[in-house]
Amino acid sequence: MKILPFAESAYTAATPVPVKEETKIFLSSPHMTGNEMKYIEEAFRSNWIAPMGPNVDRFEKELAAFTGVEAAAALSSGTAAIHLALDLIGVKQGDTVFCASLTFVASANPILYLGAEPVFIDSEEDTWNMSPRALRRALDDALAEGRLPKAVIVVNLYGQSAKMDELVAICNEYKVPVIEDAAESLGSRYKGKASGSIGKFGIYSFNGNKIITASGGGMLVSNSAHAIQKARFLSSQAKDNAPFYKHSEVGYNYRMSNVLAGIGRAQLEAIDERVAARRAVYERYEKELGDLPAVSFQPEPEESFSNRWLTVMLLDPAHTRVTPHRLKRALEAENIEARYVWKPLHTQKLFEAARFYPHERKNAVSEKLFKNGLCLPSGSNMTYEDQTRVIQAIRKMLP
Q: What is the pTM of this model?
C-alpha cells in the first residue's frame, strides 16, 4: 500500500551554525570500564589477534548467558548478523521480507544483499515499533496473493521493545519466522525476557554509540544451537571439514576479532550499570522537561523495561512553532549534538519501489515520529552538568 509522498523540506541542509567553544556534548559516546586493556593484553600475550580466539568464545558464552539464549555467534557487525539470519532462514532472490520502516537502513540492507524485496510495516503509538495491526493487513494481503514473506524483521527502537507477544503470535499464524533486531536494546526486557531472545533469531550491535561497544561488531543469537553453529561456519568463509581448502557453499568473512571481543567482554561486565545510567538520564529529562505542554517522550508500556539507549523527545506542533530542525540547530550552537529520529525507510529513495503498510489508512505513525522527534544526548557517561546544559538550552527554546 502506498501513501502520499513524504515531505522533508524542514530537514534540508542549512548554513553552518556558529558554535560556542564549550566542551562538546555528544549524543552517545563510548563509555569504557577500565577493564578493556586486561582482555586486550591477554589477546596480545597469547598472539590471538585474528578473528576467533578465547575472547570470542567467552564473549559468545557470556552474552548468551546474559540474554538467556542457547547460543551466540560473535560477528563483525549487527548488519552481518541480520544477513546471516536471513540466509539461514533461506531467503533468496525473488522472496519478500517484511521489515519495520522506522529504523536504520542496516535493518533492511541485508534483504537486498540476498536479492529479496522488502515490504515495510509502520509503527504504532504505544511503543513506536512495528504495528501489529499493519502487520496483519500485510500478511493477509500476502496470503491472498500467494506470496507470504520468508521472514519478518521486528526492530526494538531506541531500546524499547516492540509488542513481541502480539507480533510473534500473528507471524506464527502464518508460519513466518521472526528476526528480532535488538541492535539498540541490549539490556532491555519484555515480560521478563531479554530483548533479542524472543524471535527465531536475535541480533545485537556493538557499534561505538551503542549501550556497550567493542568499537564495532555484532552478535547473532538463537535458541537453536545448531543454527548458530551453521552461522559460525558461514561467517568463516564456509570452509568444509577437510584437510585442504574445500568449499561447498557461499561463505562470508564475518567473524569478530579476538581483540574486539575482549573489549566487548569488559563492556558486558558493566551492562547493568550502563542501563541504570541511561535510564537515569531519561528520568531527569522527563522530570525537568515533561511539564512543557509541547514535550512528550517515547512510551514504556508496563510489560516492558527499556534500556533507554537514546532519550527521544517529541514536539507537539499544536503547542509550539519550534520544530526539531530549529531545536537541533539551537543545540548545535551550544556545542550539543542531537539527532533526528530515523527517516522511515519507505520514504527513502533506495526503497521507493517497496510496498508500505501504515498503522491505519492515511495515518503513517512513523512519518509523524520522524517529523516531530529529536534524539537528545543520552550517554551513560554524561555528567550532571552536561545534562543541565542540554536542559537549559531546550528550555530557552521552549519557554
A: 0.94
